[in-house]
Amino acid sequence: MRFDIITLFPELFTPFVEVGVTRRAYSSGQVAVQCWNPRDYAPGNYRRVDDRPFGGGPGMVMMAQPLADCLAAIRAQRAEAEPAPLVLFSPIGERIDHAQVQGWSDSQGAILLCGRYEGVDQRFIDRHVDVQLSLGDFVLSGGEIAAMALLDAVARLQPGVLNDEGSHQFDSFNPALDGLLDCPHYTRPEVWEGEPVPAALLSGHHANIERWRREQSLRNTALHRPELLDQARSRQQLSRKDEQVLASADLVNLAKPL
């Protein structure tokens, strides 16, 4: 798959694709990434890509024409057989979740537009943008971090990227499993600052370990993201035993406000 990134700061992506476990996806070509700077398509000595908003107000707005010319160059380079929706990271966009990431990981890629300043000229959005996405209800200084988040989530789902091929199957929010939060994890030493690893994890009894992990996953979800339980129920992914765990007095007593 291929992701073309429209950004005023392509240098931000250089270390991103060269470090960490997900670099395997980029170095192997499983996920191809190419950055495009709209300044390269802006006229004049100053290569201006922004201007003041009509109607007044603070900040600047990214101009439509340099973005349109940059987009045309990208589409000309991509093969016609590679459909590439244009994605804008925006506060009005649909929030990215695991199901969306899975969908993008199975796609041929996209063109990611990283906005800056006060935003992008609405006429460009109306004419060219196919999808708008958001990381959440907060504002970043630009779309680059959101683009990196999507790329990282997609890259780690590619075959051979993670050391353990099945690792991502147990990620939090995976609806193919149940969509719940993951259980806590522990490693050596067995006792750290007086606190031991839970006995179930040291038992060597696989059934007990799996039971403990399931109960902890249910507990985490009930305490921190209870709406995920409702979604799992709607998909009929909770068993009678799960409901018994959720109804236990122990779990109720642990439900304290954050």
UniProtKB/TrEMBL annotation:
S-adenosyl-L-methionine binds at G115, L135, G136, D137, F138, V139, L140. It is found in: Cytoplasm. GO terms for cellular component: cytosol. Pfam families: tRNA_m1G_MT. Its EC number is 2.1.1.228. It is an enzyme of class 2 (transferase). Keywords: Cytoplasm, Methyltransferase, S-adenosyl-L-methionine, Transferase, tRNA processing. GO terms for molecular function: tRNA (guanine(37)-N1)-methyltransferase activity. It catalyses: guanosine(37) in tRNA + S-adenosyl-L-methionine = N(1)-methylguanosine(37) in tRNA + S-adenosyl-L-homocysteine + H(+). The keyword Transferase applies. InterPro entries: Alpha/beta_knot_MTases (IPR029028), tRNA_m1G_MeTrfase_C_sf (IPR023148), tRNA_m1G_MeTrfase_TrmD (IPR002649), tRNA_m1G_MTases_N (IPR029026), tRNA_MeTrfase_TRMD/TRM10 (IPR016009). Specifically methylates guanosine-37 in various tRNAs. Belongs to the RNA methyltransferase TrmD family. Homodimer. This is tRNA (guanine-N(1)-)-methyltransferase.
